[in-house]
Amino acid sequence: MSPTETSITPSTHPADDSCKRELSIEIPADVVAKESAAVLAKYQKLVRLPGFRQGKAPASVVRLRFAQEIQQEILDHLLPRYLQQESTKQGLNPISQPQVTDLHFHEGEPVRFKASFEVLPTFELGTYKGMAVEKPEVNVTEEQVDEVIHRMREQQATFVPVEVRAIADGDFAQVSLSGTPKDGEGDPITMEEILVDIGGTNTLPEFSAHLRGSEPGNEHTFDVVYPDEYSDERLKGKTFEYHVKVTGVKQKQLPELTDDFAKEVSTEFNTVADIRTRIRENMEGEQRGNLRRQAKDKLVEELIARHEFPIPEALVEHQIDIRLDRGLRALAAQGMSTEQMRNMDFDRLRAAQREQAAKDVRASLIIEKIADAEKIDGTEEEVEHEVENLAQQSKQTVEAVRKRLTDDGALDRIRDRIRSEKTVDFLYEQSA
Fold first, then answer.
1. Cα–Cα–Cα angle for 274, 275, 277, nearest 5°?
2. Which residue, 92, 131, 206, 223, has fewest beta-carbon neighbours within 10 Å?
3. CB-count exposure of residue 249 (10 Å: 0-12, 13-18, 19+)
4. How far apart are CA 374 and CA 281, in angstroms?
5. Per-residue confidence (pLDDT) for residue 140, from 0 to 100
6. What is the pLDDT of residues 288-307, one digit of tens each?
7. DSSP state letters, 300-325
8. Euclidean distance between CA atoms 362 and 302, whole angstroms
9. 321 phi and psi, to 5 degrees?
10. How many Å apart are CA 118 and CA 416, to the nearest integer?
């Protein structure tokens, strides 16, 4: 071996279905000596030592005083360089942070170390064209259209006073109320002239129970226990004492289903038939999209079942990070505080995400390989269209959004996503 060669002992183990690789690397002594001299000279020039002017301390003193720092800088310069060189020579592309072990570093000797890392798996594509997938027919019933129209009428309902009488289910009690948390934690609640749907599915049962049979002028004091899953973070799991005064009784009145109602809904409609046609078209489009997404999901599941190969742990961990980040953002949007998030059991959460994260990684690798085989890619026009959509949503200029995405490396992620979606579309079109 010549003095400038590097010794590599690859442990590829092609038969053990592993994504792990290990290289044993030796950096020649003359290379180490040259790097050591350069680093030492830099330290001599820059460091300040008692009793010496800057740049005048003897090399032996500097080497002794900063031995650990100098050694670390030498390794920081040489190890990544030689690892990259030898990985390239071996045709290996590390996808995880290399772990360095068995480091041997002594003055006048070669530096020896082992580096272990993960690489993408190699596997052969199985059959992916013509896979069988159920494609149900779109079916929107008249009853479903009627339900949508009913909700539209509900949105334009009016509430009309009724004669003074005892309040019954189906009535809306007009009340003014004040509430105080029984445990002393939380802010008091005060509301004037609100409507309570007696017996309604969205009305807490305590309100219906205490107001049913009441009449205008009556006053009531009672406790309301909010369930732990209540939507309002300020109230969930708490008990409030309410003082309620009934000021009136009203009933909901829906607008008549006439052509005049259709015109009030939108200037695009002239008749009730117009509304029904638009609703049906929208529902069929939504149903068609849902069925298509479900069919694609099943195709991907079938692809995963047809391809068994090792997947890198680094990619699984990264996918778990993505899924957790997405989940935490959703919880924050629902009102969960940072302090509440800190108290979550992240080890348990990560474990719960592992199985699906592994499926995501496997599917991504298969789809990428199919895209390569079929020469599917995201075009510049498609990427630009995404950028324009993001600019419109964020109310920023296209140029500003493009620069931000470029700086963040997000343009490549957008292109990869487009490529993946087009590949799954291709599989769907090719399915039986």
1. 65
2. 223
3. buried
4. 35
5. 94
6. 999 999 999 999 999 999 99
7. HHHHHHH------HHHHHHHHHHHHH
8. 12
9. -60, -45
10. 21
This prediction's pTM? 0.72
DSSP 8: B
Residue 4 pLDDT > 60: no
Please provide the size of the chain in residues.
432
What are the backbone angles phi and psi of residue 199, rounded to the nearest 5°? Answer: 80, 5
Listed in sequence order, the residues at least 6 apart from 257 whose beta carbon sits closer than 8 Å to its beta carbon are: 149, 153, 272
Of 9, 40, 6, 32, nearest in space to 22 by CA: 9
Once rounded to an integer, what is the mean pLDDT over residues 134-152? 93
Name the one residue in this structure whose structure tokens are 């129970």.
209
Name residue, tokens 């109310």: 395
CA distances 90 to 10, 85, 113, 143, 345, Å, are 8, 9, 17, 66, 42
Side chain identity at 194, as an amino acid letter? Answer: I
pLDDT at 404: 92
Residue 367 CB neighbour total at 10 angstroms: 22
